[in-house]
Specification:
The chain is built from 3 helices and 29 strands.
Length: about 425
């Protein structure tokens, strides 16, 4: 049997194992978290353009819906309440996975067409733009400047998009920075880019420490103005997760996790317990203020959002057992003393609806909801909508949740659901 055939069989086996794991976790969540309430009520599925150029897109219909493709996925989203535009990172299939199953895929030439940025009008409920920026991960809106920043993780570029013209231009980062999450410091007009880094060559899995950082971009000039080194732990440094800015504290926060041996033959190796941190820094001076250790059981903190009124961070611990959410007090710099809150498998995107006090956790196989009231906290529900539901956006003005699905009825769609606190 050829190497390609063997790879396909192995990949199929991994997919089946993942599917069985998802079904098992979904059943466990249903039994351990019984709920008859329906807090998320279906509104509509909007077909989206495909991840790759295709025959459906023409000069007469450049925004035509596409068909689902293998290993497709979406990443971050950003919403501007002034323009009612939602920017969706349609990242497309990861190039290494695409190369495994598609013998015609050329990593050097085809990756430039792998993915795009979808622009969606939340009032008209239709796609109004499609930007051919490939491999986009992070997205953030700078509403005061009418700009949007998106991270091309493959080419180590942050693109700045003009909301009025939908034109864009690049801001180069360091080679191998691999930008991911992006946040915006409205007080100081600074774009905060989390760089987990990527190995410099295919011959090694080790990421250089200089690429494990937080990059600051001045949104008024669109120039890089500084970096904060974050890869300070252990032999191989740290994974860098989400950063978020608290305007009341005039501080930014980013979660990091000491990396395990990148050359370990164990494909499921976990990071050392007790080596997850939340790092407080001042974006203006580019200085770390303090590093606070996260709970021993919180492995691989990644997604995070803030309640900026009470200065509470909600942090998703991907590799906790079970996967979980924790709360962290940004004023006392201590984890709130309570058990970890279980979520669906692979929690990633955390979004806090400030007016309603609702925390949304987008997971690999579901969406978990929690309710904050003053300092109290409770689980509301967990819903499953298929696989790859790790990203979502919330409209605080309409109580709508936007959930892009890569494969629904053979198409990529944007599912819009309405949140109802009563669940009736």
């Amino acid at each position: 049997m050829s190497k390609m055939g063997t790879s396909i069989i192995q990949l199929f086996g991994l997919c089946m194992v993942g599917l069985l794991a998802w079904v098992l976790v979904s059943m466990i969540m249903q039994f351990t978290h019984p709920s008859t309430n329906t807090h998320l009520q279906m509104e509509v599925d909007i077909p989206l353009p495909g991840a790759f150029p295709n025959t459906f897109r023409t000069a007469q219909n450049p925004l035509a819906p596409g068909l689902a493709v293998s290993f497709d996925h979406f990443d971050f989203m950003g919403i501007d309440y002034q323009t009612h535009l939602l920017f969706i990172a349609h990242t497309g299939p990861a190039p290494d996975r695409e190369a495994q199953v598609n013998p015609e895929f050329n990593l050097q030439t085809d990756v430039k067409d792998d993915g795009n940025v979808v622009v969606f009008n939340t009032v008209e409920k239709k796609v109004v733009g499609l930007l051919p920026i490939p491999q986009v991960a992070g997205v953030v809106v700078a509403p005061d400047l009418h700009k949007v920043y998106v991270a091309d993780s493959y080419e180590n570029i942050v693109y700045v998009i003009d909301e009025q013209t939908l034109t864009y231009r690049p801001i180069p980062l360091q080679a191998n920075d691999s930008p991911d999450s992006i946040a915006y410091d409205l007080s100081d007009h600074l774009v905060l880019v989390s760089d987990p880094g990527t190995p410099p060559t295919v011959d090694t899995n080790i990421i250089a420490r200089k690429n494990q950082n937080e990059t600051m971009i001045d949104a008024r000039t669109d120039r890089v103005v500084g970096r904060i080194p974050l890869g300070v732990d252990g032999q191989w440094g740290d994974d860098v997760g989400f950063a978020r800015y608290d305007p009341g504290l005039r501080r930014a926060f980013v979660v990091v996790q000491q990396l395990p041996d990148p050359n370990s033959p164990n494909p499921n190796i976990l990071p050392p317990p007790g080596t997850a941190w939340i790092v407080e820094f001042d974006p203006r001076t580019r200085q770390v203020i303090t590093r606070a250790r996260l709970p021993y059981g919180c492995l691989t903190p990644h997604g995070m959002d803030l309640d900026t009124a009470q200065h509470i961070a909600f942090i998703a611990c991907i590799d906790a057992n079970p996967p979980a959410l924790i709360r962290f007090n940004l004023q006392t710099l201590q984890t709130i003393a309570e058990p970890l809150w279980p979520t669906a498998i692979k929690p990633d995107m955390v979004v806090f609806d400030q007016p309603l006090g609702v925390v949304y956790v987008g997971c690999g196989a579901g969406v978990s909801l929690f309710q904050e009231h003053a300092m109290s906290f409770k689980w509301l529900a967990t819903y499953t909508y298929g696989m790859s539901t790790h990203t979502l956006a919330v409209n605080e003005q309409t109580q709508e949740m936007y959930l892009p699905l890569p494969r629904e009825g053979g198409r990529p769609v944007l599912r819009i659901l309405h949140f109802n606190l009563s669940g009736t």
